[in-house]
TrEMBL record:
This is Carnitine O-palmitoyltransferase 1, muscle isoform. Residues 1-47 form the Carnitine O-palmitoyltransferase N-terminal domain. GO terms for cellular component: mitochondrial outer membrane. It catalyses: (R)-carnitine + hexadecanoyl-CoA = O-hexadecanoyl-(R)-carnitine + CoA.
Amino acid sequence: MAEAHQAVGFQFTVTPDGIDLHLSREVLKHIYLSGVTSWRKRAIRFKSLVKMFSGRRPLLYSFQTSLPRLPVPSVDDTITRYLESVRPLLDDEQYNQMEVVANDFKKDQAPKLQKYLILKSWWATNYVSDWWEEYIYLRGRSPIMVNSNFYAMDLLYVTPTHRQAARAGNAVHAMLQYRRKLERGEHAPLRALGVVPMCSYQMERMFNTTRIPGIETDFVQHLSDRKHLVVYHKGRFFKVWLYYGGCHLWPSELETQFQMILNDTTEPQPGELKLAALTAGNRVPWARARLKYFSQGANKASLEAIETSAFFLTLDDEVHGYDPDKLGSLDLYAKSLLHGKCYDRWFDKSFTLIAYKNGKLGVNAEHSWADAPIIGHMWEYVLATDCFHLGYTEEGHCKGDINKGLPPPTKLQWDIPLECEEVIEDSYMVAKVIADDVDFHGCLFDEFGKGLIKKSRTSPDAFIQLALQLAQFRDKGEFCLTYEASMTRMFREGRTETVRSCTSESTAFVRAMEDKNTTSAQRLDLFRKAADKHQNMYRLAMTGSGIDRHLFCLYIMSKYLSIDSPFLKQVLSEPWRLSTSQTPQQQLNMVDIKKFPRYVGAGGGFGPVADDGYGVSYIIVGENLITFHISSKFSSPETDSYRFGQNIRQAMLDIRALFDQKDKKEKEKEM
């Protein structure tokens, strides 16, 4: 997903203490630290397991200790699969050159790097995840808004109440219920395909978590149970207590608190309006400003209130959501969730809940601590609980009584000097340039969906990925390196792996589709071969035999050992001009969408990865709807998100036509 943006061309430097220090010691030190971190996590989880075993059946973390470690693939397998993945993108001369460079690496440098990597895999719980978090996310110095953060949308067709404070009240209460179940381990264990246990460690930092900026690297601050929330509305920050008398506030009480904020007509304090733009701009200016202007007094106390809050809530003063009568409504909704005004979301919080003026909701999530399915799990719970368990009165208010003795929200106080206001404005201008450049298009494809695709005995994901390859070729007249995010959560502390969706088989199929001399039967045969290839690559990625995380870790190891590798440099700098991801749905099965077909989510998305490429997130909704979230940059003369959406639509229809023609011929034979 959004990690593809960070995975290209990042810079990394090792500076061991002492010029004569043997570099192997430095490597062993980092391997040791990875192991220490892993053992600390295990100790924390063991305490949680003990709590669960005492009096109740273990649930969420039941299988954690029995999950296997992520294996380190062999160098031979990785190099072979890498060369296979780039073959359709290179001419003969380029490929032969790459083959020579790859084989030189395999023979000369790889054995030493692989030896240390295997050593790390024995000691650390996962040989990838700690380096992935650090070097792909936390060491990045460019803005995380758009480039890293992602978003999730509300229900597509249904808005259960148009009262902003009431919708926020139910949502926040549902999140507190979810957090309590999470802390007690009461959520059911996650399973792939409903059978294979998956790792749940990413869920541990969902709440009470903030990314803290640093000069060279950020770090993730995770705290124990936090009892307050910080709310942003029209340039003011408010602190709201979530507990009273040791119990969660009821939805009706939260609605009252939020309505007080909406009714507050005070003006923002100097520098307060755009303060959150610091989290949207470059990381180093934010880190320096934090040290200089927020280390004492009111500023320190107020910033601490934000960074230690359970999560962040924006009561937005705009109206958004999907409206079939308004062209581009989904596009504007996505852009609002992705970047807003560049100063009305706290992009460093694990997530910002956004409640719009018309009752619509959404989430903007920071990416370092977890991947999209984790937020998706929580979001499914919240939307289902909101609509089917909490509900609203006939007037659209939250249900329940109100304790009139609750303390009101308190405004955070700031003393921001003019020099700091200048830093805030500079960060805002950097962020605004990025936000204004996002060309977004939301495409609702309802001609057919998963139901028809499965009848054709094809994986829905493979079908869509091949449609994206066809759309890409029609859009630009060429193929490109394609990133599809897959998960490795069947392994302990697993996160993601890359499926390289542009293959020799997929390009052969696309060329056949564009060749008028190729018959429908030939095209269909090539389609099936390409789909089978994609499914096999997806299985390899999920089971620890992917290419890219192994190459990434070999590259990091080469930096620790000061080994210069032309092969790894080239691999890690190749641009992903098409970055794709499927949003999972029905992880919890709390809503029967056959019985309630209008209560479906709209999915989510992320910003463009390459300056001249596309980002595409898609969600397969029920049997008859697929929603595409397409992003690119206005500044690129080569891309157009709406055009690409039309190309995807036509590609989907053209592939379906192959099966329609096959069915027609079979019926004619029967007659």
